[in-house]
Each structure stands twice: as structure tokens, then as C-alpha cells.
Amino acid sequence: MGIQSGAGRERFSRLRQSLVQLAGEVRPLVRSMISDKPVVRGSVYELKRKCGKPGCRCARGELHPRMVLSASEGGRTKIRAIPRGMLTDVKIRVRRYRQFRRARARLGEIHKKMLSIIDEMEAIRTEPMVPEETKGGGKQQEEA
């Protein structure tokens, strides 16, 4: 197709616009990732358990509620009790972790799209090599 043809110029222009748009998405994602605020991997939920005491209300079905953090460590799910008074802080840190992971995933998607667009732009811009002159014996000079 080549960039010199009308269709080539139009396609190249659309690709350039797409690349600029994707580049604009990168800055806010990177900005969100460079925060030094702590994050916590896992999920917060309420766990209800029996304590095992025969006379306790939990023996009659009224289980003891406890907020916990569940996360995979070394391929196994670990559950940690959240200390009283720390629930809000842990939830905020878990939310930050999820936002961080979503931003990271989006950056990966954008990177793949940008490379694909750049490859297509290169294909449109690349011209065949000019054949060497067979007569006259002069060497072709490269253009920068």
C-alpha cells in the first residue's frame, strides 16, 4: 500500500491518532502506580466460626463473626484475622492493591496495542530498497 498512496496516508493518519490516544492513557496509569501508599493483597470478608466451648452460644448455632483477610501465599490460601480497629485501613489497602493490579493489566494491554500499531506504521512507511546502479560503477549514497 505504501504511505504515498491516498489510502496509505489515511491509514497511517488513523494509526498515528490511535497511538497518540493510547499514549495519553499511559500517563494517568503510571501516576497511579508510583504512589508510595501501602497495599495489601487479598480479600476481606466476614468469617463465622464455633469456638468449641460446649456452653457457648455458638454451640446453639449463633457463630462468632470475625473479619479476616484471605490471600494466597506459596500456592496455599492463608486467612489472617483483622485486628479490631484496623478493618477500614485494611479495606483501603486491599482496594489500592486491586487498583494497582488493574492499572498494571491495562498498561500491558496498551503496550501490546501500541507495538501492534507501531509495527503496522513501520510496514506502511517501509519502502523497498532501491536497486544498485548496474552501469556507471558509482555507489549509492545512503540518506539519513
Main features:
144 residues, 47% helix, 16% strand, 2 helices, rod-shaped, alpha+beta, 3-stranded antiparallel sheet
Write structural notes for this entry.
The protein is of the alpha+beta class. The protein has one domain (6-125). 47% of the residues lie in helices and 16% in strands. The chain contains 2 helices and 3 strands, in the order H-E-E-E-H. It has helices at 6-33, 87-125, and strands spanning 43-49, 64-73, 76-81. The protein has a 3-stranded antiparallel beta sheet with strand order 1-2-3, with helices on one face. It is rod-shaped and about 105 Å long. It starts with 5 loop residues before the first helix and ends in a 19-residue tail after the last helix. The model has no long low-confidence stretch (mean pLDDT 89).
Alpha plus pi helix count: 2
Which structural class fits the helix and strand makeup? alpha+beta
Whole-number total of structural domains: 1
> N-to-C SSE series?
HEEEH
* Cα Rg: 30 Å
Short summary:
With 144 residues, this protein is α+β, with helices and mostly antiparallel strands.
Question: SSE layout and pairings?
Answer:
Blueprint: H1 6-33, E1 43-49, E2 64-73, E3 76-81, H2 87-125
Antiparallel strand pairs: 1-2, 2-3
Helix pairs in contact: 1-2
